[in-house]
Design goal:
The structure holds two protein chains of two kinds. Chain A has two domains: 58 residues, no CATH class; 132 residues, no CATH class. Chain A is 45% helix and 1% strand. Chain A contains nine helices and one strand; from the N terminus they run ααααβααααα. Chain B has one domain: FAD/NAD(P)-binding domain (3-Layer(bba) Sandwich), CATH 3.50.50. In chain B, the strands form five sheets. In chain B, strands 8, 13, 14, 15, 16, 17, 20 and 21 form an eight-stranded antiparallel beta sheet that branches. In chain B, strands 3, 4, 9, 10, 11, 12 and 22 form a seven-stranded mixed beta sheet that branches. A three-stranded mixed beta sheet of chain B has the order 5-19-18. The two termini of chain B are 34 Å apart. The relative contact order of chain B is 0.18. The chains are: A mainly alpha, B alpha/beta. Chains A and B meet through helix 2, strand 1, helix 6, helix 7 and helix 8 of A and strand 5, helix 5, helix 9 and helix 10 of B. Strand 1 of chain A pairs parallel with strand 5 of chain B. The complex binds flavin-adenine dinucleotide (FAD) and iron/sulfur cluster. Iron/sulfur cluster binds next to loops of chain B. Chain B: InterPro entries: FAD/NAD-bd_sf, GMC_OxRdtase_N, GMC_OxRtase_C.
Chain lengths: 237, 580
């Protein structure tokens, strides 16, 4: 049987408990590699287009629907306030719907994606008014989460849902659309330490614990400064 | 060494050609098609007008259709191969971006239902010249011989009308064509000659599989895979960029787009991109050609033979949409089986966290594999088999999986996602049972071409569930033995659709015969994964290509003895005349 270390405690887990969201890859900015051999012209073009979408840009959702969507996105993928490179999650969801980019399938119990979103936002707002006497986006985190959990459990039944089950809406529309929007953004890539676009150069070091000099260096506890220095050099490769 | 200025990926030009969008304007035409191996280059292409009665019009240019187009053209037949998708230039059109690259998938609307509705779109099939092989993960495996006689030898599913020894030869042909990189000796099944190119270096995620297998005392091997481990012509070796399921932008991947189709063009076939076939026309019991939508209007291509190769959903959809007074239930459907026996493969996974950095985004996702449970039948409480492989999900797919398969959102999700670089997983490709109730039908709703969209109905049977349990439990042990912690199961994933126009020996229980020729309409052929009576426990594309090679040889043989009744017999001179 091959050897592997079984640590007494899980360093990653302990770190997470102290600070649920550490700066695990300090100084890493995947965009610093944009003009190097890891990005081809097409990649530069599509990422530039994504970065040009502002947090308030919306063409598909109405001004009534917009604050509800923004509030939902904040609960599904919360962002640390003040972090540079704010991810315009709601605007990215809007962008998908406006551009008519489809997934290629939908459950028989769901209407077409645009219709599902409109109906779902309206229904969540109606549920908020009924339960708390306020709009969804006016509620605090706790109340918003409570409603979202109820949707997830399929327990919401305001007539505004019509024949759409709230759990199908939550699991088939809200989660995939919102989560994919967040993790399609370079700021999220920095957060999780993904190497990023890599054509044509690719990667060389494939083994356990090996990192190419153009990949993100992870900050091991107590060695944050080393990681920061390595990450600042990433673009020079 | 690659020199700048040779027109390959290493040149990495700063700008793209502006205004050149193959989704809007067809690229194949004016006597030329893209040379996909070189930036901005073209190759000459023979072209037919709609009134030319070509020997074969092929609907779909993926694993089945693209392979067949090359082989038939090389046998001297006139061939026009139509695809609804664009003609991509991988070196110029492919971004390293998950969201953007969803342009490769078939994302036109479909409805899913049944007890276990399928995930389609990115999980399913492509809409590109080259078909799904443009975004496939390149795993290239042979069937276990007994699977071709599953009913008689193993007691489940159905027998194929094919002999495994014949298939073994065709597998060899496809492996040579794609220069499969694989191990010197393969641990399972009958002897095969060594793979043309050496196996790839293992990634950490592949080594996790190896560790687990060794700990449990079962065999494993580097995966035979269709990406180059050494240069080949204009194609460079794999650079381990890890975007294989989103389109390889270096051309290391040996897809139908950059292997069979250049051969097809050279042999005189026409490839027609952005050409959506909506109906096959028949007259007096024979197919006469296809109606297709291109550049904003419907046109009709005459043909002596029609081949449908549109993937397991579009193939039955087209056959059903082509219903006429002569064939009110759709074409080739006297058995009532068109669209039935849709058989997918299980794709459940186990995931765990490792102390070491894994960074599984590097390299092709599935560099190591074990087929142990495809060849070992003892200790199973189910019929059929499975293999499992290492994995390498990219960020948006990984985020979506955490949210939808595991129910994580909010702080729990973003915190878990920070462990991305420490995660490894094992994912199964398992053999589900063919069931008549799993099927493709036409829905009321229509698409952008005003054609009825497909409804895909799917439910597991008890055997499928037993296989899921076995595979998940076994993979969990293996991952644990490899050092994985906090292991969780991804239970509801499937892949690889097949079986909606199955082949067989009996017209009452199958749609086509061993030659992929429909029983009902002698000049209508079906050549893609739809013809599988059972799916086996390995990824299907090598088998689809092997069947296409065989079909082309059979058609040549049938033509030579006048059995194509109406189809022109091979005349190599005619097909090659354009090139001189
Ligand atoms: C993400 C992913 C990874 C995969 N990885 C692997 C792997 O590692 N190994 C493996 O063996 N398999 C893999 N597969 C599966 C494999 O790609 C398919 O099984 C195989 O390509 C199917 O071949 P086909 O000929 O049936 O259809 P396809 O290759 O999908 O070709 C069908 C073509 O027909 C066209 N078409 C359909 N209808 C029409 C119409 N009406 N008019 C005109 N054109 C039409 C489509 O545009 C498409 O280009 C993977 C699939 C996916 C989605
Ligand atoms: S890992 Fe290899 S095959 Fe996959 S996209 Fe990169 S170069 Fe292509």
């Amino acid at each position: 049987m091959p050897e592997h270390r079984i640590p007494a405690s899980d360093p990653l887990k302990t770190a997470r408990e102290n600070d649920p969201r550490r700066d695990l890859y300090p100084g890493y900015d995947v965009l610093s590699k944009r003009d190097g051999p890891s990005w081809n012209a097409m990649t530069r073009e599509v990422i530039a287009e994504r970065l040009s979408i502002g947090p308030e840009t919306h063409h598909f959702f109405t001004d009534d629907e917009w604050p509800t969507l923004k509030a939902i996105c904040e609960r599904i993928v919360p962002q640390p306030p003040g972090r540079p490179g704010w991810i315009p999650v709601a605007a990215l969801v809007d962008h998908k719907l406006h551009a008519g980019e489809r997934d290629g399938y939908r459950y028989a119990g769901l209407p077409e994606q645009g219709e599902a979103w409109r109906r779902g936002l309206q229904a969540l707002d109606a549920e908020a008014q009924r339960a708390f006497g306020a709009h969804f986006h006016e509620l605090g985190d706790w109340a918003q989460d409570k409603l979202l959990r109820a949707a997830e459990a399929g327990a919401l039944t305001d007539p505004a849902w019509e024949d759409m089950a709230s759990d199908l809406f939550f699991k088939q529309r809200v989660l995939p659309d919102v989560v994919k929007a967040y993790y399609a953004h370079p700021t999220a890539w920095n957060e999780i330490g993904w190497g990023g676009p890599a054509s044509p150069r690719g990667y060389v070091r494939m083994d356990f614990g090996r990192r190419d000099p153009w990949e993100a260096a992870e900050a091991k506890p107590g060695h944050e400064e080393e990681a920061r220095r390595a990450n600042l050099r990433v673009s020079r490769w | 060494m690659r020199l700048p200025g040779t027109g390959n990926a290493a040149d990495n030009p700063q700008e793209r050609t502006p205004g050149d969008d193959p989704r809007q304007v067809p690229r194949a035409g004016n006597g030329r098609a893209p040379n996909v191996m070189r930036i901005g280059a073209w190759v000459p292409m023979r072209q037919y007008v709609d009134d030319d009665e070509v020997d074969f019009v092929i609907v779909g240019t993926g694993a089945g259709g693209g392979t067949l187009a090359a082989k038939l053209a090389e046998h001297g037949f006139t061939v026009a191969a139509l695809d609804a998708g664009p003609y991509w230039r991988p070196l110029e059109d492919f971004a390293s971006d998950e969201m953007h690259q969803s342009k490769l998938y078939w994302t036109d609307e479909r409805i899913v239902d049944g007890e276990n509705p399928l995930q389609l779109g990115s999980n399913n099939s492509g809409k590109s010249v080259g078909g799904s092989t443009v975004h496939f993960a390149m795993v290239s495996l042979r069937f276990r011989p007994d699977w071709f006689k599953a009913r008689s030898l193993l007691g489940y599913g159905a027998d194929w009308p094919l002999d495994w020894r014949e298939m073994w030869d065709y597998y060899g042909e496809v492996e040579q064509t794609l220069k499969i990189a694989g191990p010197v000796t393969y641990p399972w099944g009958p002897k095969r000659s060594r793979y043309p190119y050496r196996a790839h270096e293992l990634s950490a995620s592949a080594k996790v599989l190896a560790r687990g297998a060794e700990a449990l005392g079962i065999a494993w091997t580097p995966t035979p895979i269709a990406t180059l481990s050494a240069p080949r012509g204009d194609a460079p070796p794999c650079v381990y960029r890890g975007f294989c399921t989103l389109g390889c932008s270096t051309n290391a991947k040996q897809s139908v787009l950059n292997t069979w189709l250049p051969r097809a063009l050279k042999a005189g076939a026409e490839i027609r991109d952005l050409a959506m076939v909506g109906r096959i026309e028949t007259k007096h019991g024979r197919a006469t050609g296809v109606h297709y939508h291109r550049e904003g209007r419907w046109r009709f291509q005459r043909a002596r033979n029609v081949v449908v190769a549109g993937y397991a959903i579009e193939t039955p959809r087209l056959l059903l949409m082509s219903a006429s007074s002569e064939f009110p239930d759709g074409l080739a459907n006297s058995s009532g089986l068109v669209g039935r026996y849709l058989t997918v493969q299980g794709n459940q996974a186990v995931w765990g966290v490792f102390d070491e950095e894994i960074r599984s985004y590097k390299g092709p996702p599935s560099l190591a594999i074990t087929e142990h449970w495809n060849y070992e039948d003892r200790g199973k409480d189910f019929s059929g088999g499975y293999c499992y492989m290492s994995q390498g999900p990219l960020p948006t797919l990984w985020g979506k999986t955490q949210a939808t398969a595991r129910g994580l959102w909010g702080e729990a999700l973003v915190a878990e996602m920070q462990r991305y670089n420490h995660v490894a997983g094992l994912k199964v490709v398992s053999e589900y049972m063919p069931q008549a109730r799993n099927r493709v039908t036409l829905a009321e709703e229509t698409d952008q071409y005003r054609l009825p969209i497909a409804r895909v109905t799917y439910s597991w049977c008890d055997n499928d569930r037993a296989m899921n349990r076995h595979a998940l439990a076994f993979m969990r042990q293996a991952l644990e033995a490899a050092g994985g912690r906090e292991i969780w199961d991804q239970e509801n994933d499937t892949c690889h659709l097949n079986g909606t126009a199955r082949m067989g020996d009996d017209p009452r229980t199958s749609v086509v015969n061993a030659d992929c020729r429909s029983w009902d309409i002698p000049n209508l052929w079906i050549c893609d994964g739809s013809v599988f009576p059972t799916v086996g426990g390995v990824n299907p594309s090598l088998t689809i290509q092997a069947i296409a090679c065989r079909t082309a040889d059979r058609i040549k043989a049938l033509a030579a003895c006048g059995d194509l009744s109406g189809a022109a017999s091979a005349s190599p001179k005619r097909a090659l005349a354009w090139a001189s």
